[in-house]
Structure formats: C-alpha cells, structure tokens
Amino acid sequence: MARILVTGGLGYIGSHTVVELIQSGYEVVIVDNLSNSEVNVLDGIESITGVRPAFEKIDICDKSAFQACFSKHGSIDAVIHFAAYKAVGESIEKSLDYYYNNVYGLLQLLSSMRANGVKHLIFSSSCTVYGQPDKLPIDETAPRKPATSPYGNTKQMCEDIIRDAIVSYHDFTAILLRYFNPIGAHPSAKIGELPKGVPNNLVPFVTQTAAGIRKELSVFGDDYNTPDGSAIRDYIYVVDLAKAHVKAMQRLLAGSNKSELEIFNLGTGKGVSVLELVHSFMAATGVKVPYKIVGRRAGDTEEVWADSSLAEKELGWTARTPLNEVLLSAWNWEKKVRGIKE
Ligand code: NAD
Ligand code: UFG
Fold first, then answer.
1. β-strand pairing of 261-266 with 173-179
2. pLDDT band at 170 (very low <50, low <70, confident <90, very high)
C-alpha cells in the first residue's frame, strides 16, 4: 500500500482527496496547521471511509517539525501539496504572508522531500495562472499571463520552482493540476467547504444566503460581454476534482507519466454564468436566493472555461457530476453545518 503525505489535507479540496485516496487503497498521512480548517474534519473522513488517517498538526514552514514528520512516518511514496493561502483579495493586503506561506512552504516541502528520497509530487495550481485568456476554452498550451494578484503570482512562482527542481535533481517527477472553480461537498454531507467569515466565493455565498445568514447575494456585474451579462466560470465538483488526484497519483507511481513534469487542466469544459448558477441552485433546491446586481468586482475576468481533454486522454478522467447535483450537495452541507432541518 503506497503511503501518501497530503499537506493541507484537512482543507476543502484536501479532505475530499484524502477520502478518495483512502477509498482507492492508499495510506494517508495528513499535515495541516489548521490555519484554515478544523481538526474535526478528521471525524468526517473517518466516518465516510472507516479509516482515521494519521494527522500531524505542523506548519510546513517549520523546517525541523516538518523534517521530523517525514522521519516519523518512514517511507513516504509521494506528496500531494494543497497547503497554501488562497484568498485572492486578502493576498493583495497581505502579500508577504502569501509569498512566505505559499512559496517558502513549497521550498521547505521540496527540500524535505529531497532529504527523504521522496520523488513524486502533485501540486495544486489554478486556472488563475492563465489570467483572461486570448481564446476559449483554455488548454494547457495557453500562455500564462502576468498574475493579477500576489496569490496568482505565488501559483506561477511555485510552478516555476517545481519545473526548475526537476531540471536540477534527477528522478523527480511532478504533476501540476490547474483547477478551475471547485464547488460542492461530499454526498454524505460529512465534509465540505468551511469558509471563515463572509465568503468571497460564489457558491458558499449562495448557500449562506439560502440559509438566511446573508440577506442577499450581490451579483458582481451584468454588463460583461456574455449572453446574460454576468461573468462565466467553469464550476467543477470537488469530488470529481479529488478523483483526478487519484488518477494522477496512479500515473506517477506507475511511472506512466510521459515527462518529468506534466500539467493538466481540471474543469468541466462548460462555462456557466453567475446568473445561471444562481437560478440552477434555486431550481435544484427549491430554495429562494434573493440577489441584486451590483458593479463588477475588481480583478475579475469576464469568462473562463477549461479544455480538459488532455486530462481525459492521459489520466482517463472527466468531470461527470451534473451541476444540479453539485449544487444540491453544497446545500445539503450548508444545512448540516447550520443544523437546518427541512
Ligand atoms: P483550504 O484553505 O480549504 O485548504 C488549505 C489547507 O492548508 C487548510 O487546511 C490550511 O489549514 C492548510 N495550510 C495552509 N497553510 C499551511 C501551512 N503553512 N502548513 C500546514 N498547513 C497549512 O483551501 P482549498 O480550497 O482546499 O485549496 C487547496 C489548494 O488548492 C490550495 O493550494 C489552493 O491555492 C488551491 N486552489 C484552490 C482553489 C479553490 O477555489 N478552492 C482553486 C484553485 C487552486
Ligand atoms: N461572484 C458574485 N458574487 C459573489 C461572489 C462571486 O457575483 O458574492 C462572482 C464573481 O464575480 C465571479 C464568479 O462569481 O464572476 C466566481 O467567483 P468566485 O469568487 O467564486 O471565484 P473566482 O473565479 O473569482 O476565483 C476562484 C478562486 C481562486 C482561484 C480561481 C480559479 O477564488 O482562488 O477560482 O481557480 F484561483
């Protein structure tokens, strides 16, 4: 049984991936400093899988603690690296925190991996590295545009650091997964997204509005050059996304990767506007979401959706879950968290 170290494994995407890894027969060691997660996520993982993975409350920037963790858990076969700060707006106000955590954290990880002979890495990148693309859908050959936020810059820098590390050190292989917009929660409603404070992202804001925690949703802009004027994104179910990590892991461990560094877009290939998403949520759940149109949000791109055909061809992966089911999962999770009974 291969042993996988998952940084940020109690976070939103990490916890769903840990479930899929365990259900695919991997042994998992989670490293998380709980800066954006709760330790009881472990209970949810255990309740779904019947397995309580090893957990180390460690900051990956703490070199000696991280190094000790590698030694303690013996032979680690590969790492999936989720641990990072991820709020675009916050990164503009706290840029140094973002560079420290995301870039220095990766450097610590790579040196610990080297010191312990761990040779395979899957890295959480983002479609944010493309900026507003010249053509849609976006495939992996699209140029990376200058980052529009320190967060986006950290993703570009981390991609470059991994690329350079592969050139420097032999026998090191990595897969960069560029996520589009992950949404939804596990169908069991035992794990999901736990945004702290007022959510920045659309779906948590929609579910909190439906739950009556927020008065109304602000739709940021209806004057984009799109069919209904609102911005378009590619919303990918977090469980589908998690399954892609298992496929990527199988590929790395089997050595069936075609180059030392591979990059895959992970999206549905379908663009959905903000207004379409809100109306789909109301149709799927039967719950009203009051909303108003306001001005555009600074830094937003008009429309982005993925060409994920490379992931389909090489990983044998596609996003399968229909949007109404995904939105229902997000609503079921919100109800569970808030103790809302039907
Ligand atoms: P999340 O905040 O829910 O999870 C990140 C986890 O990492 C948290 O549990 C946090 O406590 C932990 N963490 C952060 N810094 C750490 C450190 N220094 N040491 C140890 N643990 C640390 O975020 P998520 O949505 O699950 O995102 C996971 C990854 O995917 C991130 O790298 C993020 O940038 C990337 N990503 C996310 C999205 C998205 O929309 N959610 C989109 C594209 C890429
Ligand atoms: N939106 C609203 N109202 C809200 C929140 C969002 O109208 O209250 C709109 C946004 O303007 C945007 C769309 O909904 O048009 C999606 O916004 P999100 O904030 O959910 O997602 P983004 O596309 O802005 O960014 C997300 C993550 C980034 C990541 C990016 C690509 O927040 O970290 O996806 O992966 F880089």
1. parallel
2. confident
Smallest CA separation from ligand 2 atom 12, residue: 231
pLDDT (tens digit, 9 = 90+) per residue, 180-194?
999 999 999 999 998
Tokens matching residue 329? 């999962």
202 CA distance to ligand 2 middle (Å): 6
Looking at the structure, do residues 114 and 209 belong to the same domain, yes or no?
no
Judge if 145 and 46 occupy the same domain: yes
Read off the tokens for 33.
């400093």
Q: Which residues are catalytic?
A: 151
Final residue belonging to a domain, choices 213, 248, 266 = 266
Give the pLDDT confidence of 21-77 residue by residue, as tens digits.
Answer: 999 999 999 999 999 999 999 999 999 999 999 999 999 999 999 999 999 998 999
Q: Count of residues for the chain?
A: 342
Which residue's CA is minimally distant from atom 16 of ligand 2? 202
In this structure, the answer to whether residues 245 and 321 fall within a common structural domain is: no
Per the DSSP assignment, residues forming a β-bridge with 31 are 7, 56
How far is 252 from 257, CA to CA, in rounded Å? 6
pLDDT, average across residues 231-251 = 98
